[in-house]
Write a structure and sequence with these properties.
alpha+beta, 6 strands, 121 residues, Alpha-D-Glucose-1,6-Bisphosphate, Chain A, domain 4, single chain
Length: 121
């Protein structure tokens, strides 16, 4: 962490840059349990409507985390219970090639998280 801070201050590392590329993340609080939010990604039709494209799950731990294949980088969603009927989702997109890709990714995932939230209201 100290090294990353130093590299950012000295201009050797850009914001969101890590050793193997760039990372983007987005989080939202949903008004359902972590298991219920996760169940929405288990269903192919709901997953496609939330994510905006057809993707295959590569790791699936109910109520905890999902990972899936993505054309560029690696994507996973963590679920954190915030009580019986509320959870936080944290979407992480790793191994992006540039800072511009981070900007596009954050915009894309924010829209996906908002679609997810709207589907629950």
């Amino acid at each position: 962490m100290v090294t990353v801070g130093y590299e950012r201050i000295t201009g050797r590392r850009a914001l969101h840059q890590v050793s193997d590329g760039f990372n983007a993340s987005v989080s939202r609080t949903l008004p359902v349990s972590a298991r219920a939010a996760h169940a929405m990604l288990d269903d192919d039709v709901q997953r496609r409507s939330i994510l905006g494209r057809k993707v295959a799950l590569t790791t699936n731990r109910p109520g905890k985390v999902v990972r899936f294949a993505w054309p560029q980088g690696r994507v996973f969603i963590n679920f954190v219970a915030k009580g019986r009927a509320k959870c936080q989702i944290a979407i992480q997109h790793e191994k992006l090639p540039s800072a511009a890709a981070v900007k596009r990714s954050k915009s894309y995932w924010a829209a996906a998280a908002n679609r997810w939230l709207k589907s629950l209201v």
